[in-house]
Structure formats: C-alpha cells, structure tokens
Amino acid sequence: MHEASIRRYAALAVPRYTSFPTAADFVPVTPDTTSRWLRQIGPQEAVSLYIHVPYCKEICHYCGCHSKMAVRESVVENFVIALLSEIKTVSSNLTARPQVVHLHWGGGTPSILDVDQFERIIAALRLAFDFHPEMEHAIELDPRTVTPVLADALAQMGVNRASLGVQDVDGRVQKAIGRIQPIETVIRATNLLREAGIERLNFDLIYGLPYQTVETLRETCERVAALKPDRIACFGYAHLPQRRANQRLIDASVLPDTEERFAQAAVVTESFVRLGYQPVGIDHFALPHDELAIAAANGTLNRNFQGYTTDSCQTLIGLGPSSISQYPAGYAQNISDVGQYSRRVNAGELVTVRGYFMRESDRVRAGIISALMCNFRVDLNEAAPEMEFADEMALLRPLASDGLVEVRDRVISATEDGKPLIRLVAAAFDEFRRGNVQSFSLAV
Ligand SMILES: C=Cc1c2[nH]c(c1C)Cc1[nH]c(c(CCC(=O)O)c1C)Cc1[nH]c(c(C)c1CCC(=O)O)Cc1[nH]c(c(C)c1C=C)C2
Ligand SMILES: C[C@H]1O[C@@H](n2cnc3c(N)ncnc32)[C@H](O)[C@@H]1O
Ligand code: SF4
Asked: Strand 55-56 vs strand 352-357: parallel, antiparallel, or unpaired?
C-alpha cells in the first residue's frame, strides 16, 4: 500500500469496537429496563461479572479510563459501601441464582482495596451468585501496588489471573507520561504473583506515547517478553485532551505522528512474533499454550468491553460507576460520576443511565463487526444471508482497491496490509458512523 494511503486511512478516527453499537451511541436507558433484564436471567445461567473500582493513587497523564485520585482512604471505603449497596439491589432484582464463570476487577486500580474490603465484596456477591468451581477470577493491578501481603491475599481469594499495567519501561517515556515505574517494579510484582500461585499474567503496553520510537519500543518489547507473561496487550495511545483533562499534561508536540505510529504498531507485532508470541486480534499477543491464542487460531475468540476474551457468556453484569452491562436484549451503563453513583445506590436504586435496545439488525451488525475484529474475516452468506449491504459494499470498494480487503462471493477478508486497519472495515458496517467524524481515536 502507498504511504499516502496509509497516512490518509490511519489518520481517520474510528471506534475500537469493544461493543456494537459503541458506548458513544448509547441512548437514555432507565433502571426499570435493567431491572427487567436482570429478572430474565435463569437459574444457574452462566454470567460474567465486572467490578469497576474508580480510584487510583494518582492519575497517569495518558489515562483514558474512568478513574479519580483517591485523596483519602475514606473515599475508597465510601465507594466500597456504595458498591455493597449496588450488589444488594442488583441481587434483589434477580429471580434466580446465576452461576459466575468470569469475575473481573477493573478500574482504576482495584489493588487500592484492602483485604477486608475485597472480602466484604466477595461475601456480598456470594449471597446472590454461585461461583463456578473453575471460574476465571481476574484482576487489573498497578505493579507499584503489589506487595507480598496483597499477592497472598489475592491468591487466597481465588484470583487466578492478573493484568499488570506496564505501559512502557523506558525512563524518558515514563517521565513524559507521569508514570514512573522502573522495570524492577514490574519484575518484583511478577515474581510475587507467581510465588503466590497466580501464574496467568497479562501485561498492558501502549505505543504512540511521547518520545517512543521504533527503537525504544523494540527494546521495551524484548525486556517485557523476557518475563514471559502468557498475554500482552499493546494499545495505540488515544489522545483526546478535549475530553480528558489529565491528557493536557502531555505535550502533543512530542507525540509520534501517524506514520510513526503505524511503524511502531508494526515493530511491536514483529517483535512479539519473533519472541514466540502469537498475534490475537488487533492489539493482543499470547504464548501458543494460552487459551486466547488457541481461541484466535480456531476462530472462537470473542470481544467485550475488556477487549479480547475467551468469554462467550450472553450476560455480563457490570457493577460500579461507569460500568457497562450486556444482556441478551441490550446494553446498560451505570452513571459515571462517583458522587452521584454513591448517593443513588445508597438510596437503594439501580443506576443505569444509558445503554441500547438491540434490534435484530443490530445483532447481525454486531456479529459481523465482532467477526472482523476477532478473525479479520466474515462470511456474509452465514452472518447475514437476508441482507444486501449495498451501501456497505460501496464503502468497502476504495479499501479493496487500496489492497486492504478482499471481497469475494460476499466473503470479506482483510489482507495482511489491511489487518492493522480492520477498524475501518468494521466501521463500514456501523450504521452510526456514516461520515460523521466523532472524537474517536486514530485508526492505528
Ligand atoms: C480500563 C480502562 C478503560 C478503557 N476504556 C474504558 C475503561 C474503563 C471504557 C470506556 N472508555 C471510554 C468509554 C466511552 C464512554 C465515555 O464515558 O467516554 C468507555 C465505556 C472513552 C474512551 N476511552 C478511550 C477512547 C478513545 C474513548 C472515546 C471513544 C470511544 O468510546 O471509543 C481510550 C482508551 N481507553 C482505554 C483504552 C485501552 C483506550 C484506547 C486504546 C481503556
Ligand atoms: C487498561 C489499559 O488501558 C490502557 N490505556 C489507558 N489509557 C489509555 C489511552 N489513553 N490510550 C491507550 N491506552 C490506554 C493502559 O495500557 C491500561 O493498562
Ligand atoms: S492507567 Fe491505571 S493507574 Fe494510571 S490513572 Fe489510569 S487507571 Fe489509574
């Protein structure tokens, strides 16, 4: 593909498609709807739970997550009290006991909770939910917060997977992103978790950050791969300073440009493949024995709000401010403001504010977009035998003539050149993106 085409395409802003419709297209949805959707869950039905802990010790300059600085310990305790209220209200809306197959603590920094707080939350969940004996119990950890006491406590709680925010190990980059974290900190956290018996590890990295180059990234990839985490995610930095005040601390003049980002994404993939990892979707890598690598190879990979997953549950219940729940009938997102969240859950309310009611055609589009994001390929004869997609096909034509996709007998597949730009192919099937450029991140 020509440099000029890369530049043109990679500079387009498109969603990351962790859901379709994306959260940006949600409409008002009320707690009554969530109550109805919760009541429809059947006995022993497999569900996933996501718990959002919206606090960190301090906020990194690049962060795009929903999190605030915990200025006092009491702030975190007040959040835990509110979360316990929400769990009680959600539980009282259930008409059956579901079975939890995946439990994920995200944030923010869940490791800001103390052992007593974790235990109270788990005890509250166990009153209404059965935990599957082989439940995947995962937590996002800031390596700087991992202590021997925490590692042992997490293992005691049944945590069997941890995701560490590594971001980059280069000192100059770390200074520019407000995240000072020498690699020794990552090594220590990794060892403590493994010694405690938590061996399934993921590292998160970011490319497209200030002062990163192809050379610094190659070095970062080698240093983190030497620690042999089963999984690595490497996201493209999404710089949206108009929406995230903390990102205004990043000097945009030292950010890599579109072409450099493109080259960085390529060197990350090239490095991890050389170091024994298999690429999974657009931004994950996994060692060959890992379930995610196996799912990617045999076409059973799924995508949810946390990214790529082996989870195939119909229902994901999100708890905590800003959490998104997924039900067979649609999506429901909680209010994001922690103060309002707390006031309302403490008054016994569900706090759904936005979401989406899935129509049959949305389900078809969601299936197509998910197949493209996970497998880089979709067969419309299987996915949507009844739908013509004339507009969509017209949108794909320029991508096809630039060598990004091949369309044959209604089978759409990305070429090797097209894989990094698969979000653009997916966007052709997104009815909500018809030429309107919104504040999404760059395609690469
Ligand atoms: C773990 C941290 C999270 C990341 N994303 C989310 C969390 C909790 C969830 C999230 N982020 C955004 C939304 C949309 C609704 C909103 O309130 O703004 C949700 C549900 C906003 C957002 N974050 C990023 C972008 C580009 C946007 C806006 C566009 C969009 O909705 O797609 C950047 C970003 N955040 C995270 C990653 C990994 C990432 C970029 C690679 C983490
Ligand atoms: C959950 C993961 O999301 C990533 N992350 C957080 N903020 C951003 C952003 N603005 N752009 C890209 N990735 C981000 C970090 O790698 C974190 O560990
Ligand atoms: S990247 Fe992690 S630690 Fe940093 S502010 Fe965001 S949620 Fe908190």
From this structure: unpaired
- Residues 76 and 161 reside in one and the same domain: yes
The minimum-distance atom of ligand 1 relative to the CA of 206 is: 41
CA distances 383 to 41, 119, 198, 308, 359, Å, are: 26, 44, 39, 20, 15
* 55 and 179 belong to one structural domain: yes
The predicted complex's ipTM stands at 0.91
- Nearest ligand to the C-alpha atom of residue 56: 3
Do 11 and 29 share a structural domain? no
402 annotated as a binding-site residue: no
β-pairing, 377-379 vs 411-414, is antiparallel
Q: Could you tell me the distance, in angstroms and rounded to a whole number, from the CA of residue 372 to the centre of ligand 3? A: 29
pTM (two decimals) = 0.94
Ligand 2, residues at Cβ distance < 6 Å = 62-65, 165, 167, 204, 206, 235, 237-238
Taking only the tens place, the pLDDT of each residue in 322-361 is: 999 999 999 999 999 999 999 999 999 999 999 999 999 9
Which ligand 1 atom minimizes the distance to the CA of 324? 20
Q: Which of 61, 63, 65 to mutate to test the pocket of ligand 1 (most atoms within 8 A of CB)?
A: 65
Domain of residue 14, residue span: 1-21+360-435
Total residues found in the chain within this entry: 444
Between the CA of 238 and the centroid of ligand 1 the distance, in Å, is: 9
Query: How far apart are alpha carbons 80 and 91 in whole angstroms?
Result: 16
Residue-averaged pLDDT of the chain: 95
d(CA 63, ligand 2 centre) in Å: 6
**Cβ–Cβ < 8 Å for 333, 352:** yes
DSSP-assigned beta bridge partners for residue 406: 413
Three-state DSSP class for residue 355: strand
